[in-house]
Write a structure and sequence with these properties.
Elements: E1 3-8, E2 12-18, H1 25-31, E3 35-38, H2 41-48, E4 54-57, H3 61-74, E5 79-81, H4 84-94, H5 102-116, H6 129-162, H7 182-188, H8 194-201, H9 210-237, H10 243-252, H11 256-266, E6 281-285, E7 292-296, H12 297-305, E8 310-315, E9 318-323, H13 327-341, H14 351-365, H15 370-395
Parallel strand pairs: 1-4, 4-5
Antiparallel strand pairs: 1-2, 2-3, 6-7, 8-9
Helix pairs in contact: 4-5, 6-9, 6-11, 7-9, 10-15, 11-13, 13-15, 14-15
């Protein structure tokens, strides 16, 4: 078995090819011949010339990993992904306490395969094309949102003295709407508005400059890119395999972007179930109570992947809460709680909306911090979502 450990950098990779796990990895590190390839035609060809049976790498962002992973896949070489935290712990297990470099990571990745190749859960699930594309698109949307915020802030600051009557006007595009926000489109010269024309004619401002028009044009271009991405997301989510998931999402009142985020993270749900396709539940004796306690392992894995299953780091008298999983999912669910559950008139008109709404109201009435309340409601929503998805897929 020719196992290739790859540590990916911005424009190159460090590679370690093994046919067996060395008995002393720490010593082998000093004797091993590591290869380094640049992100160009000769580098890709030299990498493929190693003819590995499998390549092991970290999920180092879609932009860096995508190039190498795609060329390996086209050559028929399977790729396995190891999580960052798992590799960090494993590298320490091998004794690489002092050496944290690309070569040490490549060697650790290759060794990891020999130790855990029979344990699929030790590796990150590789996603098929539709899921990969959906994830790329939602990350692009998140990037566009980050890019627009400082431009809009700068625009409003300039309008405060150039056209103060419009400086604080809310101008947002609804999701799936094909229309550009009126204020920005009018400033950019993309749309006409008699109302803004009249306001500007009687404004106390000092007049709109070309800089404001350029900023408005930038916003419109970014919004047009968002529109194109949303169109593609609609087509991708319309696939038959996603229909049972989206029916459940509709019960929760999830919008297009949140549906896309969740699908990219949890599909297929079978990854969280046992071999028979059922939620994995075991019974163990409690460490403190000593009584038999059920552990809902599948549900816990599901919640952890969404970033709403807190864990603990305890040492001596110190005990710290920590949260793992997807930051993207956790933020998206938190925002959904803020806009759909906390606002009473926006709650889903069904049992789900009733349960979560009552929990929200009860928690707030107890005087708990609002951030804690929203986090707890998001965790409750994730548990309900898992149960509804299991039921829907079983009956489908």
């Amino acid at each position: 078995m020719r196992v290739l450990g790859l540590d990916i950098s911005k424009a190159s990779v460090a590679a370690c090819l093994l046919v067996e796990k060395p008995s002393e990895p720490r010593q082998f590190y000093f004797d091993c011949r590591f290869e380094h390839f640049h992100a160009n035609a000769s580098g890709i060809n030299a990498l493929l010339a190693l003819m590995p049976d499998i390549a092991i790498m970290e999920p180092t962002g879609i932009n860096y990993q995508k190039l190498w992973g795609t060329h390996l896949a086209r050559a028929g070489i399977p790729v396995a992904l190891v999580g960052h935290s798992e590799l960090k712990a494993y590298r320490k297990h091998l004794g690489f306490l002092d050496n944290k470099d690309d070569d040490a990571d490549a060697l650790a990745l290759a060794c990891y395969w020999f130790d855990y190749c029979d344990s699929p859960r030790r590796f990150i699930q590789l996603r098929d094309y539709p899921i990969t594309r959906i994830r790329e698109l939602i990350l692009r949307l998140a990037h566009l949102n980050r890019v627009q915020s400082p431009i809009i802030n700068r625009l409003r600051q300039d309008l405060a003295w150039q056209f103060p009557e419009a400086a604080q006007v809310s101008s947002k595009r609804k999701v799936l709407s094909q229309n550009l926000p009126l204020l920005w489109a009018w400033l950019a010269g993309e749309k006409r508005s008699l109302n803004y024309d009249r306001l500007l004619a009687s404004s106390v401002g000092l007049g709109i400059t070309d800089t404001v028009k350029l900023h408005a044009q930038r916003i419109c271009h970014l919004q047009q890119e968002e529109i194109a991405i949303e169109r593609e997301l609609v087509k991708l989510l319309d696939a038959a395999e996603f229909h049972p998931y989206r029916k459940v999402f509709a019960e929760f009142g999830f919008g297009l972007r949140l549906q896309s985020v969740l699908i990219s993270q949890i599909y297929p749900l079978e990854n969280y179930l046992d071999a028979s396709g059922k939620p994995e539940v075991i019974e163990r004796r409690g460490r403190k109570s000593g009584k038999p306690t059920k552990r809902y392992l599948s549900e816990r894995r599901f919640m952890r992947s969404l970033g709403v299953a807190p864990g603990k780091d305890a040492s001596g008298d110190k005990e710290l809460d920590r949260v793992g999983g997807s930051d993207l999912c956790r933020i998206a669910l938190w925002q959904w709680v803020f806009t759909r559950i906390e606002v009473k008139r926006s709650r889903p008109k069904n049992e789900i909306g009733k349960q979560l709404g009552e929990m929200m109201d009860a928690e707030k009435s107890c005087g708990r911090p609002i951030r804690l309340v929203r986090t707890r409601v998001a965790a409750k929503a994730a548990r309900l979502l898992f149960k509804r998805l299991v039921w829907a897929l079983k009956s489908n």
